[in-house]
């Protein structure tokens, strides 16, 4: 079974710093009580595995989760730009447990 965790147009901050992650799907990651980060691997369509880190704030009203780790390397290697769409999915199966996939849908709108 595959569950979509992120489907968003990239912003300038996503491209230059870290990927803002939707707080509503944080439950897909099993963070230990008291921790504010978890490492996870995601496979791209070429089969390459990327090492990402999902982080949240330690304090404050809003957790503001972001993805770091290999994120900026992924951005550079894939040539991502603002308004490209990033899709992160969680895959669950009885044999392998939980895994993650990441892919990009480029922004195909032409500027006139």
Spell out the blueprint of helices and strands.
Layout: E1 2-9, H1 12-16, E2 19-20, E3 37-43, E4 49-55, E5 66-69, H2 71-78, E6 85-93, E7 97-105
Antiparallel strand pairs: 1-6, 2-5, 3-4, 4-5, 6-7
Subcellular location: Nucleus
GO cellular component, one term: nucleus
Organism: Salix udensis
Keywords:
three-stranded antiparallel beta sheet; four-stranded antiparallel beta sheet; mainly beta; 12% helix; 112 residues
Structure description:
It is built from two helices and seven strands. It is mainly beta and 112 residues long. Strands 2-5-4-3 form a four-stranded antiparallel sheet. It has a three-stranded antiparallel sheet with strand order 1-6-7, with no helix packed on it. It is globular, with a radius of gyration of 14 Å. The model has no long low-confidence stretch (mean pLDDT 90). One of its GO terms (cellular component) is nucleus. It comes from Salix udensis.
């Amino acid at each position: 079974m595959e569950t979509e965790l992120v489907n968003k147009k990239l912003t300038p901050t996503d491209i230059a710093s870290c990927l803002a992650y939707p707080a509503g799907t944080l439950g897909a990651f099993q963070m230990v009580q008291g921790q504010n980060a978890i490492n996870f691997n995601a496979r791209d369509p070429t089969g390459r595995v990327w090492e990402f880190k999902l982080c949240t704030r330690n304090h404050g009203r809003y957790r503001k989760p972001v993805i770091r780790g290999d994120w900026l390397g992924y951005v550079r290697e894939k040539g991502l730009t603002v308004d490209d769409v990033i899709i992160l999915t969680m895959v669950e199966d009885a044999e392998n447990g939980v895994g993650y996939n990441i892919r990009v849908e480029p922004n195909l709108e032409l500027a006139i």
